[in-house]
Amino acid sequence: MSLPSRRLWLAPSLLSADFAALGDAAHAAESGGADALHLDVMDGHFVPNISFGPALVAAVRAVTKLPLDIHLMISHPLRYVGAFRKAGGDTLVFHMESDDPPREVVRAIRDTGAAVGAAIRPPTPFESVEPLLPEIDEVLVMSVHPGFSGQRFLPEVLPKVRAARAALDSMRSPALVSIDGGVVPETATEAARAGATFFVCGNSVYNTLGRVDENLARLRAAVERGARDGVP
Ligand code: DX5
Ligand code: ZN
């Protein structure tokens, strides 16, 4: 008997792409088999780095049909959710550690019509996001300290992926469990085995070692392998 299969999403992170050729990077992801694009918004306050804002999201929106998963690494998500929705974000993912009250942020995102994601940094316990699970569409477990691409995966976050999977399954929620940071084929398999269903991939998709479609094919095989051995 075959196991019920969940959809597994590969979401290349444009932070690792060539910023002078983002249209090409988006097209390569779309034609190479990606399921979504992940866009990392950083304000130089919540994290030390500064990346980009709504204008860039709108420019990417104009060149792809892929869903856009907007990761708001910013201190005041309430101020900006309207702008990122207007720019074309399909899911707006805020951080539980931001300065705004999480329930207000959830409501504000919902009011824009976007799907709602909530992210936790590596030191933040799963229990911080647990009460929000019935109200959200994506739980994003960070597997590096937010701010930069190309860091090493922190395996100690995997118990949070398992906890999120178990909690969502117990409430029969279709919400996605995302893993973000240091996702390469080996760690993607581990994360899929733990129950992740949405895989943010920066340097493992955009690099000089292989073409985007080849890299995505390797990641696809890796997550399918993990999902097969993992939870039903
Ligand atoms: C880090 C970002 C990640 C980053 C992932 O703060 O949230 O989305 O782009 O890049 P890799 O996959 O290279 O770790
Ligand atoms: Zn991210």
Instruction: Just give the CATH class.
Output: Alpha Beta
Catalogue the ligands: D-xylitol-5-phosphate, zinc ion
Tally of extended strands?
8
| Unreliable parts | none
Structural class: alpha/beta
3D structure, described in words:
Strand 4, helix 4 and strand 5 form a beta-alpha-beta unit. 34% of the residues lie in helices and 18% in strands. Helix 3 runs parallel beside helix 4. It is built from seven helices and eight strands; from the N terminus they run E-H-E-H-E-H-E-H-E-E-H-E-H-E-H. It starts with 8 loop residues before the first strand and ends with a helix. The chain has an eight-stranded parallel beta sheet. It has a single domain, classed as Alpha-Beta Barrel (TIM Barrel). The chain is α/β, with parallel strands linked by helices and 232 residues long. Bound molecules: D-xylitol-5-phosphate (DX5) and zinc ion (ZN). Zinc ion binds at residues 13, 38, 40, 71, 180, 200.
Present the secondary structure layout.
Elements: E1 9-12, H1 22-31, E2 37-42, H2 54-61, E3 68-73, H3 77-86, E4 91-95, H4 102-112, E5 115-120, E6 138-142, H5 158-170, E7 176-180, H6 185-194, E8 198-201, H7 212-229
Write a short abstract of this structure:
This protein is α/β, with parallel strands linked by helices. It has helices at 22-31, 54-61, 77-86, 102-112, 158-170, 185-194, 212-229; strands at 9-12, 37-42, 68-73, 91-95, 115-120, 138-142, 176-180, 198-201.
Question: Which labels suit this protein?
Answer:
232 residues, 8-stranded parallel sheet, TIM Barrel, 7 helices, alpha/beta, binds D-xylitol-5-phosphate, binds zinc ion, 18% strand
